[in-house]
Each structure stands twice: as structure tokens, then as C-alpha cells.
Write a structure and sequence with these properties.
305 residues; 2 domains; 9-stranded mixed sheet
């Protein structure tokens, strides 16, 4: 097992099987991945002119990383060990952006210092940081998916559970998986209603390992408290439905549960939640308490190194 640093000079704006690997690692390696913020550091002041921003350089992801031995049909487990934030974040919103895009009359930028575990939202309000990764995924089997778009390969899911300690499980669609991540937030609420979290550069340490012989409905996430299925669709209703169905399918496959029984369990003890409603596809997640999944037969050791 080796540990490597991948600098934020290696960035892509789309996830694609045609991207050349920036780094090759072995199954089980640890990588410290340095990321730009979602504006690639172009916003440095609240007074800055929106028109001066190069909107082609949005949502860069650092990578891709080729994992030796990864073959289509495998799963890639990304254990997020640590997220170190830069000392300043930024938020933007305006006309045609986010859920208030039809009411906002001008573009706004807010710079948000981050120190001592707090995001200084205003003179009167400090928010606890809740670091999370907005864009994280593998290459799709074919075509090119912009980093701003989520999907079954991962991408811009903006799921706030993708944080320190979590294990995100992604598909391997092409040899080597071609994994990348970016768009870290110092904090973000479910929905991401302004079209951004507290956007910030970061260094993210992950351990990458392969899971063979599982046909789980990914993307999935396992943390100390939850087993989660994540789905993205054009409409939130459809994303929500598929996230719940994916959890039922997981319980059928992994725990041998009957479909109706699994559905009862979700309805009695699970939570269907919104990740984001502002990206080209909307993202929902279904959260089942981990102890319940384990009681039904899910083995956490399956996704540990
Ligand atoms: Ca995002
Ligand atoms: Ca973002």
C-alpha cells in the first residue's frame, strides 16, 4: 500500500473513457487529491464582475486516477479518510440560478472565511463546517459527462453524506475505473438551493479499493450510521423513486429479502431525502439505518480493505 499526492494541475471538466490517466495506483492505495474550488479559483472578491468569469472552467475534477486491476463490472470503494479545507470559500447566486433564480435581480458573490472549524457566514453568524465532496465519480462506459452533471457514474451528486469517514461505492465502467473528484463544499444543506454550497479548494485523502462479484445498485454510500442508495434523474420525483427502488433491490440481492418485505422495511424505518435540485439532473438518496441493514445480513466487512 502506497500513498501519493495528485495535484490540482491535473483536472478534467468531464468524465470520459477517453481521458488520459493522471495517476496509476494499485488496488488499496491511498491518494491525497488536491482540488480547485468549483470556479477553479477565479472568484477572489465579492466585488468581482460575473461577466469576467470563464464559465467553461466550472466544476473541475482532479484526475482521473487509473486503478490497476479494475475491470468493467467491478465496483470501486472510495473510503474518504480526510477532507482538509482551504481558508476561504465562496458562494454565488443570481438570475436563472438556483430555486430563487426567477426572483433574484442581480448576481451576488459572498466570500466566506473558514477558520477554527467554522465558516464565517456573516459578522453575526458562524456556521460549523461540514466538509463534503460535490463531484466524485468514475468514467461512464461511453460518451462524456460534464462534471456538472450527476448520473449512475457518480459526478455532481452534491450529496452531503459524501464526507469524512464515508465509503462511496461507484461502478467501474471502463478498465482502470478512471476515478476523479472535485467541487468540495465547506458546508451545504440538502437541496443546494442557491446552486452552490460553500465552494472551497481542498485536499482529500481517499483509499481506493476494488470490490469484485457484487452487482449492487450504485452509487451507494455506507457511513457509520447509514446504508444509502443515490439516484439522479431529470425530475426529482423519478430520482426519489429510483433511489428507493435501488435500496429494495440491494436488500433483495445482498440480504435475500422478499420485495414486499423490503418495501415495508423502507416505509417503516428508512428516509427518502433530497441531495440537490439545481443541477442538470436532480439527485435523491434513500437512507436506511446501518444497524438495520446489518441485522438483515449486510456485512460491513465486505467493503473494508
Ligand atoms: Ca456541485
Ligand atoms: Ca459546488
Amino acid at each position: 500500500m502506497t500513498s501519493t499526492v495528485l495535484s490540482n494541475q491535473h483536472i478534467v471538466y468531464a468524465m470520459s473513457p477517453d481521458n488520459q490517466p493522471a495517476l496509476r495506483v494499485e488496488d488499496g492505495d491511498i491518494v491525497e487529491i488536491h482540488t480547485c474550488d468549483c470556479f477553479e479559483g477565479q472568484i477572489e472578491s465579492a466585488d468581482q464582475d460575473f461577466g469576467g468569469i470563464d464559465w467553461e472552467r466550472i466544476n473541475p475534477a482532479t484526475g482521473p486516477i487509473y486503478v490497476e486491476g479494475a475491470e468493467p463490472g467491478d465496483l470501486l470503494v472510495v473510503h474518504i479518510q480526510e477532507i482538509q479545507l482551504a481558508d476561504r470559500g465562496v458562494m454565488t447566486t443570481g438570475p436563472n440560478l438556483g430555486v430563487l433564480g426567477d426572483e433574484l435581480e442581480r448576481n451576488s458573490i459572498r466570500m466566506i472565511p473558514v477558520r477554527d472549524g467554522k465558516a464565517i457566514f456573516s459578522d453575526a453568524l458562524e456556521l460549523p463546517i461540514q466538509p463534503m465532496i460535490g463531484v466524485i465519480g468514475t468514467a461512464p462506459a461511453q460518451g462524456s459527462v460534464p462534471c456538472g452533471t450527476p448520473g449512475d457514474h457518480g459526478g455532481n451528486m452534491d450529496c452531503k453524506r459524501i464526507t469524512e469517514g464515508a465509503r462511496l461505492i461507484l461502478p467501474v465502467n471502463v478498465p482502470g475505473a478512471l476515478f476523479s473528484l472535485g467541487d468540495v463544499h465547506a458546508a451545504m444543506g440538502d437541496g443546494e438551493v442557491a446552486v452552490c454550497g460553500i465552494e472551497i479548494a481542498a485536499a482529500v485523502r481517499v483509499q481506493l479499493h476494488l470490490l469484485k462479484g457484487k452487482n449492487w445498485p450504485v452509487p451507494m454510500l455506507v457511513d457509520d450510521h447509514h446504508v444509502i442508495t443515490i439516484a439522479s434523474e431529470k425530475f426529482l420525483d423519478d430520482a426519489a423513486t429510483r433511489a428507493a427502488k435501488n435500496m429494495v433491490h440491494f436488500l433483495e440481492q445482498e440480504c435475500g429479502m422478499d420485495k414486499a418485505e423490503a418495501t415495508f422495511l423502507l416505509s417503516a424505518a428508512g428516509d427518502l431525502r433530497v441531495c440537490q435540485v439545481v443541477d442538470p439532473l436532480k439527485t435523491a438518496r434513500f437512507e436506511l439505518p446501518r444497524w438495520i441493514a446489518e441485522k438483515q445480513g449486510f456485512s460491513f466487512s465486505a467493503i473494508q480493505v
